Automatic annotation (TrEMBL):
Membrane topology of this protein: Multi-pass membrane protein
InterPro entries for this protein: Transgly_assoc
Organism: Gordonia soli NBRC 108243
Transmembrane portions of the chain: 20-37, 49-71, 77-96
Protein name as it appears in the record: GlsB/YeaQ/YmgE family stress response membrane protein
Keyword Membrane attributed: yes
Keywords, comma-separated and alphabetical: Cell membrane, Membrane, Transmembrane, Transmembrane helix
Family designation: Belongs to the UPF0410 family.
GO cellular component term, pick one: plasma membrane
Protein localization: Cell membrane
Length: 103
C-alpha cells in the first residue's frame, strides 16, 4: 500500500465511524443536543424543532469527526454520543454566527 492510499484509507476510516445508537438515536440525541446548543449560543428564538434536529445531527457528525482523532468514538454509548453532538452543535452554531455576523 502506498503512502497516498494509506492516507485515503485513514481519512475514509475516520469519516465513516458511527456509534451503536443508530439513526433514530442520532435524531433523538441530535434534537436534544441541537436545542441545548441553541440555548447555549442564544439562537433558540430563531430556530424551530426541525432546525434544532438538523443542527444536532450535523453537529454529531462534526463532533464525531473531530473527536475521532483523539478518542474511539465508535465505541461510545448514548452519553458520549450526546456530548459529541452537543460539542459539534455548539461549534457549528459558532461558525454560522461567525460567518453571518460579517454580512
Amino acid at each position: 500500500m502506498s503512502a497516498s492510499q494509506a492516507v485515503e484509507f485513514f481519512v475514509a476510516e475516520r469519516s465513516t465511524t458511527t456509534t451503536a445508537v443508530g439513526w433514530i438515536g442520532y435524531i433523538i440525541i441530535g434534537g436534544i443536543a441541537g436545542w441545548l446548543a441553541s440555548k447555549i449560543m442564544k439562537t433558540d428564538a430563531q430556530m424551530g424543532i426541525i432546525l434544532n434536529i438538523v443542527v444536532g445531527v450535523i453537529g454529531a457528525f462534526l463532533g464525531g469527526f473531530l473527536l475521532s482523532f483523539a478518542f474511539d468514538t465508535a465505541s461510545g454509548g448514548w452519553f458520549f454520543t450526546f456530548f459529541t453532538a452537543l460539542l459539534g452543535s455548539v461549534i457549528l452554531l459558532w461558525l454560522v454566527k461567525l460567518v453571518t455576523r460579517k454580512r
